[in-house]
Amino acid sequence: MEALKQGADALFILLGGIMVLAMHAGFAFLELGTVRKKNQVNALVKILVDFSVSTVVYFIVGYAVAYGTSFFVGAEQLAAKNGYELVKFFFLLTFAAAIPAIISGGIAERAKFWPQLLATAVIVGFVYPFFEGIAWNQHFGVQAWIKSLTGEEFHDFAGSVVVHAMGGWIALPAVILLGARSNRYRKDGAVSAHPPSNIPFLALGAWILTVGWFGFNVMSAQTLEKMSGLVAVNSLMAMVGGTLAALVLGKNDPGFVHNGPLAGLVAVCAGSDLMHPLGALMVGGVAGALFVVMFTLTQNRWRIDDVLGVWPLHGLCGAWGGVAAGIFGLKAMGGMGGVSLGAQLIGTAMGVGWALLSGAVLYGALKAAFGLRLSQEEEYDGADLSIHKISATPDREVSW
């Protein structure tokens, strides 16, 4: 029976890892559909290469930073318990690799390729797993300290703060240091529209992410016996809440409609194992509204050219999710209890502060050492031709 349980747990978390791996195709197509046509190839290549770099760095360094587990042992030892520790690494790697995939959308269309790969290595090798270890592995006694102050530990079941807020708040200084795309904001005060190149691909990316998210959230239980159908239904309710709020406030704009479910899912991650489904619906609705309002504000009034809106979508909605778990997770709000609003505020603030500081230092150093931005001519030609020497749909085919 024990061998059967070990095999079932390994299969369970492996399937979760595969579902979250599929989400990276969602990141790729969401970015591909949102950027202009001359940057589509770059969107596809960045996501795949970022994932590959993340895998190597997290295997060698990052997983050990977060969990103290080294893979520099014999294969026989690695295969113990059906290789559960290895597939757990695979599952958690897909979370770690989501950070550069998130950042990619904010810096799209004008960022250099190689400096961003260096950033990916540092983020996945140290920045992310440092906070991951604090939140999910009791590092440095921080959780015990929070519990001594508030009565409960900081709770983030599936990464509203640990993954999404982290990615969004690291991206913010990167976007600001890069500056806006050429001709995005004119000297006369006008805002030049850079419309999405392909709404069907944008929608496809959103749908792939949405479906994969049920692996992201449900399989965060990490063992079969801890799996909860409540997590699945809460994810569903938050998804539709975000969609409907974005539909109304976004005035039926397809970009907002397809990012609305993602906003809801980002926000519900932290408390998806605690909330009542009606609470999850409200959390998702607030997140969808927050994304529409803040995306519009950052783009048009503050003139922060965050191409896919990753700061409002992941940074702000992730932070809201961390706080919301401390509200809608309470028994008084129909939740399971065992959570404290004070603990959620402290943990969320710590995650946001670490991400913002790390992003500013890392991208500031890269800008000083290598530069972050393509030349004006390269940006005009597009990242596809400038970096990859081919466009998504070459105008002239070679005939043999």
Which key phrases capture this entry?
single chain, 16 helices, 71% helix, globular
Beta strand count: 0
Main sheet: strands, sense, barrel: none
Low-confidence stretches: none
Q: What is the radius of gyration computed over CA atoms, rounded to a whole number of angstroms?
A: 21 Å
> What portion of the residues fall into strands of 2 or more residues?
under 5%
Mean pLDDT across residues: 95
Q: What characteristic shape results from the CA principal axes?
A: globular
SS-based structural class? Answer: mainly alpha
Polypeptide structure, described:
- With 400 residues, the chain is an all-alpha fold.
- It contains 16 helices and no strands.
- The longest helix has 33 residues.
What does the secondary structure layout of this molecule look like, with pairings?
Elements: H1 2-34, H2 40-67, H3 75-78, H4 80-96, H5 98-106, H6 113-137, H7 142-150, H8 160-178, H9 199-218, H10 229-249, H11 254-268, H12 277-301, H13 310-328, H14 341-369, H15 376-381, H16 383-388
Helix pairs in contact: 1-2, 1-4, 1-5, 1-9, 2-4, 2-5, 2-6, 5-8, 6-14, 7-14, 8-13, 8-14, 9-10, 9-11, 10-11, 10-12, 11-12, 11-13, 12-13, 13-14
